[in-house]
Amino acid sequence: MTDPSATTIVFLLFPGITQLDFTAPAQALSRMPGAVLAGVAASLDPIVTDSGFSIMPTHDFATAPQADILCVPGGHGVTDALSDGATIDFIARQAAGAQWVTSVCTGAFLLGRAGLLADKRATTHWGYTHLLPLVGARHENARVVEDGNVVTAGGVTSGLDFALTLIARLKGDAVAQMIQLAIEYDPAPPFAGGHPDRTPEAVTAGLKARVYDAAAARMEQALAR
């Protein structure tokens, strides 16, 4: 029998996922009182992440529990997932019954493909924010953006910020602060940066040229299909 006090948190998994988009919020949310996590994919086969190792799903689409919190991570695999009807249908079905609909990084575009970001304020990884209007969203320059029951987070590490923000909404600030302390989330990066607003322009330009100009072009092509 399902515990009525439990909060079921469903993470969508797909090939090419950025593992930290999933594992960072999962680590924080798993410590929330009553949390029950599920990693759901099209099948129970191992999911190869962008880090080279694989993650084992706990459920497939047919056996997945209904989410109270649906979380869609991102990764370079999003471009393929956008054209997978079963994945988009799963997101839409789960979102219809979820209390919260959330994404990390480019997972926002999967929410958008499912029709969940229309006229919503949203964010995603900085290399792709200019594409949010293609799914009907309005970009807000923030690490975590809340619009109704839809919560989107920026790139990769922002998944921790999103998770702690949501824990505070559900269980109160003190619980969120205790979890933040338990995982010793006390960022002190060796460099001031991590976002174009605070990174030397030459560094941002170099990274865009090497990675994100082409990656964003591929995302734009996938969204156009």
Please outline the helices and strands.
Layout: E1 7-12, H1 19-29, E2 35-41, E3 47-48, E4 54-55, E5 59-60, E6 69-72, H2 78-81, H3 85-97, E7 100-104, H4 107-113, E8 121-122, E9 138-139, E10 144-147, E11 150-153, H5 158-171, H6 173-182, H7 201-224
Parallel strand pairs: 1-2, 1-6, 2-5, 6-7, 7-11, 8-9
Antiparallel strand pairs: 3-4, 10-11
Helix pairs in contact: 1-5, 5-6
User: Radius of gyration, rounded?
Assistant: 17 Å
Q: What's the total helix number?
A: 7
Classification by helices and strands = alpha/beta
Run of helices and strands: EHEEEEEHHEHEEEEHHH
Number of strands: 11
* Nearest-integer average pLDDT: 96
**Main sheet characteristics:** 7 strands, mixed
Fraction of residues in helix:
25-40%
Beta fraction: 15-25%
Can you offer a commentary on this structure?
The protein is α/β, with parallel strands linked by helices. It contains seven helices and eleven strands. The protein has a seven-stranded mixed beta sheet with strand order 5-2-1-6-7-11-10, sandwiched between helices. Strands 3-4 form a two-stranded antiparallel ribbon. Strand 10 and strand 11 form a beta hairpin. Helix 1 packs parallel to helix 5 and helix 5 packs antiparallel against helix 6. The N and C termini lie far apart (43 Å).
